[in-house]
Amino acid sequence: MVTGAALPALATGSDGVVAGATTSLTTAAAADAAQSYTPTSASSSSSDEIRAEIAPRGTFSATTPEEIEETRSRAVAAALAAGMPLGSAVDIPIADRIVMPMADGTYSFTDGFGASRPGRSHLGQDFAAGVGTPINAAMKGCVSRSTESYQGYGVTIQIESIVDGQAVSTVYSHMNYGTRAVEVGDCVDEGQYIGDVGSTGYVFGSCLHFEVHINTVAVDPMPWLQTHVS
Residue 62: what pLDDT? Predict the structure, then answer.
């Protein structure tokens, strides 16, 4: 089991969001004005980029499942409060199986990676679908962001994983209000339900905006999924 985790820079927020500078906890890619947040000043740009960290995981001792969960929750809370990476409190799992984030037949592809946007290119792939369509985790990982409102991304969940020895962050945005099924510090399996499609944030129509970041760098999700989906 890998005992380090690649996490974007994070800072704890009142809604469970973690965002911040390079030495903080989670990541968030700034995207276009139509789909994602675009920084308006040089001072804000650095905090809007994906940042990852590999950090040793702390250890704790517990016996019963309840004690384990309670101890893990305390460790996560302490790590977030101290601005430490999520991987210092929980094991970031190795994802040995990857699936599409939505079930076949429930979506169609619209705007893709690199599509023209004012000020910058589109950093993800959009899965157009009706409001309420289920969204699933693409792989095993632990949640580093879960919020009802994150800049232009709207309702957003971000999950940290390790794939082929690399730090991989997946971002699920424009989700529907009140449907998030996971919180920061939760760990998920591939195919696990995490929420519903919505039209929150800067978006036209309802869709899942899906991003993949490898070692802090945004990559085109489609060829990456085609290579890795089981």
Answer: 63
Which residues of the chain, if any, have pLDDT below 50?
1-34, 36-47, 50-57
Look at the block and give the residue holding tokens 């996560």: 76
The dihedrals phi and psi of 103, each to the nearest 5 degrees, come to -70, 145
Q: CA 39 → CA 153, 170, 201, distances in Å? A: 13, 21, 15
In single-letter form, the type of residue at position 59 comes to T
How far is Cα of residue 182 from the mean position of the Cα atoms in its chain? 11
- Among the listed residues 54, 142, 53, 165, the one whose alpha carbon sits nearest the alpha carbon of residue 92: 142
Query: Is the distance from CB of 143 to CB of 159 less than 8 angstroms?
Result: yes
pTM of the entire predicted model: 0.69
| Residue in the block written with tokens 């500078």 | 21
Token pair recorded at residue 87: 């991987």
What are 29-61's pLDDT values in tens digits? 444 444 544 444 444 443 455 444 444 445 556
Q: Where are the alpha helices (DSSP H) in 32-182?
A: 42-45, 65-81
DSSP symbols for 160-202: EEEETTEEEEEEEEEEPTT-----TT-EE-TT-EEEEBB--SS
